[in-house]
Write a structure and sequence with these properties.
With 623 residues, the chain is of the alpha/beta class. It is built from 17 helices and 21 strands. The longest helix is centred in the C-terminal third of the chain and has 26 residues. Bound molecules: ligand SFD and adenosine monophosphate. Ligand SFD binds next to helix 1, strand 3, strand 4, strand 7 and helix 13.
């Protein structure tokens, strides 16, 4: 620890993360900062050009409402989100993003993102809300605009944010360390915006051995948003609402383009389409079982029922879909031309956002126009911006939010001065890349206003910061002091390496909290046992050891994951029903119950270390 320099940076608005929400926040904060003489700083654990979920690019923009062209209304989008989440959504937050998201998409296009156009110059839609893009460089384009706005001197890349700084109940900064140099960073600010993405690898992944690390969501999003907000004392919401995407098996290629653009079917090994043969099951989950489109978790559920009956493998019928579209062209020549076009689009869909799936196709001699591909339900992820909903409980916009959902500044958590956006804010699903960027802009504007209204920052005790530095760097000391005592530095009675720690966490979650091994099923008894084992894991976190800075990051990533895990287990336990059977099934409470159409929120109280669970009524904007 002695050779670690401490660098202190004081700014007005501090943006944590460099992904879609943070990039939106950067552009907006820079605008208001310039007008009002404020400073803005941004910290990312990686390099912004390729950090976060959009690192590999994307092949679609999943949220575009088309308000100007009268394609849809804000209410249409709110209805879609509420229905997809089986009633559990904050209308005010969803509406707030929906009314601004189109302008974000227009900015992307202005910055150089190629959006597909038809012969009349209109955007090509994948589905009702989704636009097709040539998105390999999506993140580079969005990051460039953010970097230009804030200025590279104010951007700290490869700095891992570890803990919040809180004084007098107000969030006044964050601490972290460089993953390249021996520098401990202390950031102090008037307003802090957390946008550090969701969490992956909390549950044991399907990928093992040579495939380990491959997951649908990016492995570098490790629950830092949830940890940061929880540790600051913020109220959290929807911590039980994990997301399980159905994906092309083993390389996690997206299915959206296949289902929506190519109108493909998925069938079991006998050729039966579970969405047809299992339709009666949807009655059990009404009213949401009977809405259109059928909620994502119920689409999963119908497939899972086939798998549980031994009717797998499940196939995406790519060959059938491609041939059907080609044939509908009329004459043979046109059909051949169309076939070539579709083949190219199919490969590009993967090459734009999940390159490994294209590699797997190549490696397994898969020609999608000839042969179907297996699909499967992935392990659970925490991602408030997609079809999950976990995140912090934030204040709604003053003009539309019900009284109970607003306390001053839009997107501020229940901790003064701490704002959240993207995966970091909860109960506002289906914002995806574009909505996360738009929400980042909304939150940053409010954070600037907060910084102007609250110019005096309470002092953080210097001794407390020194104590934090000691704790954060402790794994390096642990390794240095003990590694020579065993012949293999990975195995040592005095410590645990972060990878082993992660394996233990994943095993607990997989087996007790409804992971892949447990066929996404759990119960009160299982969850209580899991919680007991998590308590032991928490105790053992003190024995984490790191060989270098990279492993130090791995140590803290896994501590962050562990807190996300605990919030999840406690919240599933609190909700005594099954509401999203295709995300998790509570075998002891197997039905959806009317009196559970509420949010389940939780708070970890920093002073007592106690967790508090709350049932919060849902207030609708639209009936
Ligand atoms: O279709 C720290 N998503 C899709 N959205 C779309 O609009 N279209 C698609 O086609 C999408 N598809 C998709 C998507 C995601 C993935 C992984 C795949 C495919 C394979 C969803 C969006 O990507 C997602 O909604 C947004 O990116 C969410 O934005 P945000 O800002 O909440 O998260 P982020 O972009 O991942 O950024 C997180 C940032 O935090 C940094 N970070 N920095 C400092 N300290 C720490 N401790 C940190 N921890 C994390 C990260 O480096 C990053 O900069 S489809 O298949 O669904
Ligand atoms: P995905 O590739 O599964 O992330 O899907 C991309 C977008 O399409 C998301 O907005 C999904 O909610 C939506 N989507 C995917 N499959 C379907 C489907 N079968 N029906 C309706 N919407 C879908």
């Amino acid at each position: 620890m002695a050779d670690f320099e401490t660098k202190e940076i004081t700014t007005d608005v501090l943006i944590l993360g460099g992904g879609m929400a943070a990039s939106g926040a950067a552009v907006e904060a820079a605008y208001w900062a310039k007008k009002n003489g404020l400073q803005v700083a941004l910290v990312d654990k990686a390099a912004m050009d390729r950090s976060g979920a959009v690192a590999m690019g994307l092949s679609a923009i999943n949220q575009y409402v088309g308000l100007k062209d009268g394609q849809n209304t804000v209410k249409d989008y709110v209805d879609y989100v509420k229905n997809d989440l089986m009633g559990i959504a904050r209308d005010d937050l969803v509406a707030s993003i929906a009314r601004h998201v189109d302008s974000t998409v227009h900015l992307f296009e202005k910055w150089g993102l190629p959006i597909w156009k038809d012969e009349e110059g209109a955007y090509v839609h994948e589905g009702r809300w989704q636009l097709m893009i040539n998105g390999e460089s999506y993140k580079v384009i969005v990051a460039e605009a953010a970097k230009n706005a804030v200025g590279t001197d104010n951007i700290y890349e490869r700095v891992f944010i570890t803990e919040p700084l809180v004084a007098d109940g107000r969030c006044v900064g964050a601490v972290g360390f460089s993953v390249r140099e021996n520098i401990f960073y202390v950031f102090k600010a008037k307003a802090v915006l957390a946008a550090m993405g969701g969490a992956v690898h909390v549950f044991k992944p399907r990928s093992a051995g040579e495939g380990l690390g491959r997951a649908w969501y990016p492995p570098w999003n490790s629950g830092s948003s949830a940890y940061f907000t929880l540790k600051a004392g913020a109220e959290m919401t929807c911590q039980e609402v994990r997301f399980i995407p159905v994906r092309f098996k083993d390389a996690y290629g997206p299915v959206g383009a296949w289902f929506l653009l190519f109108k493909s079917r998925a069938t079991n090994a006998q050729g039966e389409a579970y969405m047809e043969t299992r339709r009666d099951e949807l009655e059990k989950w009404k009213p949401y079982g009977l809405v259109k489109p059928i909620p994502a978790n119920l689409r999963n559920w119908l497939m899972m029922l086939d798998v549980m009956e031994g009717k797998g493998p499940i196939y995406m019928r790519t060959e059938e879909a491609i041939q059907n579209i080609a044939k509908s062209e009329g004459d043979e020549k046109a059909a051949k031309k169309k076939l070539k076009e579709l083949e190219a689009e199919a490969w590009e869909d993967f090459l734009d956002m999940t390159i490994s799936q294209a590699i797997l196709w190549a490696a397994t001699n898969t020609a999608p126009e000839e042969k179907p591909s297996e699909i499967a339900a992935a392990e659970p992820y925490f991602i408030g911006s997609h079809s999950g909903a976990s995140g912090a409980w934030v204040s709604g916009p003053a003009d539309i939010a019900p009284e109970e959902y607003q306390w001053g500044y839009t997107n501020m958590s229940t901790v003064k001065g701490l704002f959240c956006a993207g995966d970091a804010s909860g109960a506002s699903s289906h914002k995806f890349s574009s909505g996360s960027h738009a929400e980042g802009r909304i939150a940053a504007k409010a954070a600037c206003r907060f910084a102007l209204d609250n110019a005096d920052i309470p002092e953080v005790d210097a001794g407390k910061i020194e104590e934090m530095k000691k704790t954060i760097l402790a794994p390096l000391d642990k390794f240095a002091q003990n590694s020579k005592d065993s012949s293999d530095p990975d195995i040592n009675p005095a410590y645990m390496k972060p990878k082993m720690f992660m394996f233990r966490l994943q095993k607990i979650m997989d087996e007790y909290a409804g992971g892949v091994t447990a066929q996404f099923s759990t119960s009160k008894a299982q969850l209580e046992k899991g919680l007991e084992l998590l308590t032991f894991l928490k105790e053992d976190a003190e024995h984490l050891a790191a060989e270098d800075l990279h492993e130090l990051m791995r140590c803290w990533e896994n501590v962050h994951r562990m807190w996300q895990a605990e919030a999840h287990v406690r919240t599933i336990l609190a909700r005594e029903e099954t509401r999203w059977p295709g995300y998790y099934f509570r075998s002891d409470t197997p039905q959806m119950k009317e009196d559970w159409e509420v949010f389940v929120n939780c708070v970890w109280h920093p002073d007592s270390g106690e967790w508090e669970m709350k049932k919060v009524p849902i207030k609708r904007l639209f009936e």
